[in-house]
């Protein structure tokens, strides 16, 4: 039956350990196959609330291949009572100390059930009537009928999403999640550096090429006075498209200038972007190639990286068009892979002096703006550059893409101006004084190294929050961007990214943290709190994202807390329990 499989079957011991680990995380289908359901011994009924000790023992038994016999021997407690009456399901979770910090999250290979009123997802706090086959949504109290394929549900036959300990589950269903898509890495490499620095950067990039996941798509752009887009798909000869560093490049210009419609007529109407909207996969594969196929070309391009050939007068800074290069990278990704996980990894070795996003003029007589200048508002190029990067941020968020910046220079490179684009897209910033410094080298490798041979990097996420009417959301502080989805759940007070109940998270991983700020909602016309009949309230966090294995997943976390009153005034002392 699926209960056992969700905790790892005997087969998990055999063969490839990674595959076994995946199997362990994957719960069986719902409803369970009839044969399996019929053969399940009655002793498999679960105690509620679950004893974690029992759970761990059961899991160990399952892992050691001794999982068939049920809970009879070994001194385990006698089978407990059946699930309590549905009312008790609304109990608070056990104290935090008893909850494993990072339990295996079950991955359910089917679509979630949603409340027909508020669209929140069936969860362990839902009140279930097994006889009438109805569940009550804890958020809006709507009664929802179970669909036909849940008709076998009973107290002893629960789908995983109703297990009390699975307050976080992931759904993966091909109907909802679409095809598997590879992650995309677009390298954007500064060449206005001394030979020594270029040498360091070359060797770091060469290491990264070896660590790229085979299925990931890779693109390569270099910049100095001009922006060069390398056509990795063009056989053994090096070939690249060159753009002026003095202006940004729109997606339309890119489509025209980079021969995406060579020999064919460009559609005159509609949005042209990606293979779904008008581009052939061959035209895209000229610039974005699977890492496994372009390793040779990529290594050749990296090997031949040279200092920007344009002469720099002694009294001037190098002509470095960081802004134009990032604009080209963003537009190229927007043309080729909109709405699919991608990150721009920019390696910058000095201040931007050319074109949009410049932070200082080329003349060395003019010093780079300092903290004081920013405080006094006397950095002449600052506002313009911030505005430019704000546009890039909007474009990237719209496309679902991330900007990472590796800024390695003794000089400043302009992260203050760029940071809006990095923050809103959930990107990474690494600052070091040289590309030879271990801070840079180790950080870069750490992004690409992981024990599981996956990067743990997820992409293109959308976070939505449902909550009980007792609370309202003021906003979120963290690496995300508001999707401006107005909702009755939003508070009038805004902190961070507020006035919405949905946020875009272009880049996210295991360590991504968000701070949610909420308000206690007051009942109209009185000071009493808690519109619900009970003193219990709920949050549900829904994260729809591109998993590093390529599929879209939906992670649903539902938590509950109880209002308690302290000894002081009522309003000041309501708090989380
Ligand atoms: Zn509801």
Q: Which key features would you list for this structure?
A:
Immunoglobulin-like; 20 strands; seven-stranded mixed beta sheet; 3 domains; eight-stranded mixed beta sheet; globular; single chain; alpha+beta; disordered N terminus; binds zinc ion
Structure explained in plain terms:
InterPro entries: Beta-sandwich_Sec23_24 (IPR012990), Sec23 (IPR037364), Sec23/24_trunk_dom (IPR006896), vWFA_dom_sf (IPR036465), Znf_Sec23_Sec24 (IPR006895), Znf_Sec23_Sec24_sf (IPR036174). Its main location: membrane. Residues 182-448 form the Sec23/Sec24 trunk domain. Residues 1-89 are annotated as: Disordered. It comes from Oryza sativa subsp. japonica. With 577 residues, this protein is α+β, with helices and mostly antiparallel strands. It folds into three domains: 1-82, no CATH class; 184-448, Rossmann fold (3-Layer(aba) Sandwich), CATH 3.40.50; 457-573, beta-sandwich domain of Sec23/24 (Immunoglobulin-like, Sandwich), CATH 2.60.40.1670. Helices cover 24% and strands 20% of the residues. It has 15 helices and 20 strands. Strands 6, 7, 8, 9, 10, 11, 12 and 13 form an eight-stranded mixed β-sheet that branches. Strands 1-5-20-19-14-17-16 form a seven-stranded mixed β-sheet. Strands 2-3-4 form a three-stranded antiparallel β-sheet, with no helix packed on it. Helix 6 (195-211) runs antiparallel to helix 9 (291-303). It is globular, with a radius of gyration of 27 Å. The two termini are 36 Å apart. The relative contact order is 0.10. Mean pLDDT is 78; it is low at 1-27, 32-102, 525-532 and 569-577. It binds zinc ion (ZN). Zinc ion binds next to loops.
């Amino acid at each position: 039956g699926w209960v056992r499989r969700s905790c790892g079957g005997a087969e998990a011991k055999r063969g490839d350990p990674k595959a076994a680990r995946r199997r362990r995380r994957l719960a069986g289908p719902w409803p369970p196959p009839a044969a399996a359901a019929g053969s399940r011994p009655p002793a498999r009924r679960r105690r509620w609330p679950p004893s974690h000790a029992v759970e761990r023992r059961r899991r160990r038994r399952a892992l050691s291949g001794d999982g068939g016999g049920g809970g009879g021997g070994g001194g385990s407690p006698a089978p407990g009572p059946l699930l309590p009456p549905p009312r008790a399901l609304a109990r608070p979770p056990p104290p935090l100390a008893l909850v494993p910090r990072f339990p295996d999250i079950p991955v359910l290979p089917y679509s979630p059930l949603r409340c027909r009123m508020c669209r929140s997802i069936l969860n362990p706090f839902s009140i279930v009537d097994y006889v009438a086959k109805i569940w009550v949504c804890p958020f809006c109290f709507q009664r929802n009928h179970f669909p036909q394929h849940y008709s076998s549900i009973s107290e002893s036959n629960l789908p995983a999403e109703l297990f009390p300990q699975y307050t976080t589950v992931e759904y993966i269903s091909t109907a909802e999640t679409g095809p598997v898509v590879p992650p995309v890495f677009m390298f954007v490499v500064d060449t206005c550096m001394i030979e020594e620095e270029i040498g360091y950067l070359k060797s770091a990039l060469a290491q990264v090429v070896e660590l790229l996941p085979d299925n990931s798509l890779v693109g390569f752009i270099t910049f100095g006075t001009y922006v060069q887009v390398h056509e990795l798909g063009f056989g053994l000869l090096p070939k690249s498209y060159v753009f002026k560093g003095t202006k940004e490049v729109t997606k339309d210009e890119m489509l025209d200038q980079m021969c995406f419609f060579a020999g064919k007529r460009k559609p005159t109407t509609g949005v042209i972007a990606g293979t779904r909207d008008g581009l052939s996969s061959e035209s895209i594969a000229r610039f974005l190639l699977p890492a496994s196929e372009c390793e040779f070309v990529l290594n050749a391009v990296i090997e031949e990286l040279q200092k920007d050939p344009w002469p720099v007068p002694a009294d001037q800074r190098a002509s470095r068009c960081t802004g134009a290069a990032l604009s080209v990278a963003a537009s190229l990704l927007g043309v080729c892979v909109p709405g699919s996980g991608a990150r721009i990894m920019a390696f910058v070795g000095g201040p931007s002096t050319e074109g949009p996003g410049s932070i200082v003029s080329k003349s060395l007589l003019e010093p780079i703006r300092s903290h004081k200048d920013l405080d006094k508002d006397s950095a002449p190029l600052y506002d313009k550059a911030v505005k430019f990067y704000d546009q890039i941020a909007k474009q990237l968020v719209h496309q679902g893409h991330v900007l990472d910046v590796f800024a390695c220079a003794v000089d400043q490179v302009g992260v203050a101006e760029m940071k809006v684009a990095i923050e809103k897209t959930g990107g990474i910033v690494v600052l070091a004084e040289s590309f030879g410094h271990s801070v840079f080298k180790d950080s870069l490798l750490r992004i690409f190294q992981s024990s599981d041979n996956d990067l743990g990097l997820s992409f293109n996420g959308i976070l939505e929050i449902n909550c009980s009417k007792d609370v309202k959301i003021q906003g979120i502080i963290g690496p995300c961007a508001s999707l401006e989805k107005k909702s009755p759940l939003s508070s009038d007070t805004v902190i961070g990214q507020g006035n919405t109940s949905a946020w875009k998270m272009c880049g996210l991983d295991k360590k991504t943290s968000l701070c949610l700020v909420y308000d206690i909602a007051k009942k109209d016309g009185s000071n009493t709190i808690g519109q619900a009949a009970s003193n219990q309230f709920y949050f549900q966090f829904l994260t729809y994202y591109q998993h590093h294995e390529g599929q879209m997943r939906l992670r649903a976390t539902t938590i509950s807390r109880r209002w308690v009153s302290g000894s002081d005034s009522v309003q000041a002392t309501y708090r989380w329990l």
